[in-house]
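Subgroup meeting minutes
Present: P.N., E.W., G.H.
Scribe: E.W.

1. P.N. recapped why we're keeping a running log of single-chain structure predictions: easier to compare across weeks, and new members can see raw inputs and outputs side by side.
2. G.H. added today's entry (247 aa).
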Amino acid sequence: MILLVALLSLAAACGGAEADMSATSADDGPVKPVALWGAEGGFVTATTNVLRPPRVVLYSDGLVIVDASKQLKLTDAEAGETVASMERHLTGQPPTAEPKPGAPMVTDVPTTVLGARGKDGKMLEVRAAALDQVAGFYPKELSEAKKLMDGLATRAAATGTDYVATRVRMVAEGAESAEGKPASWPAGVPEPSGMVDPVWQKDIVEGAAVSAITKAVPAGQGYGRSLFKTGSGALFVLSWRYLLPDE
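Output recorded in log:
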């Protein structure tokens, strides 16, 4: 009997160790994007082009971030269903989709980017120019994928919370001909260095500098009110956004 109890205790201990190891191995590193909807190009300013985050990005832990400003958390089931649906919609599509013959010519609008991480761990991305404007000339699966991600954006706007991070991306755009009285360059914020053509960008990960720029240029503030002069007298418009977990 004593021997039997000892064996059972050893077996239980070994089983517990396996459970702990399994739980640890499930955490395989930083979160990764598993589905996304974004935009590229179009007739936008240089600052917008550099700062523009994905419209919607879903991460492997269920976190959804919209425009790098709103967030919500999906359940494991919701996240899995979303990724599976996106993968179905995008599988078989070319990396760059082309509209059917006869589609009207549309210029100066962003190219839609849709993505899903497949079972092989690779990110499947499809780009479609002017998808919103000529949706009827593209496979319906692309519009369905965009609609699915747009639904997450709507949910985040209605029930999500503000997204904040400890790291930011700042952009300084030359504004030599800008009107208005510039403020002195914010203390603690790095000044542009080297060639600025037409923008200078820097990812800031230090707490003091992050605090300095977010206080100097409140989120959502208009460009006309964020004009600053460096110590050398150069004028710049400062803008920033929070960095995403994978940036």
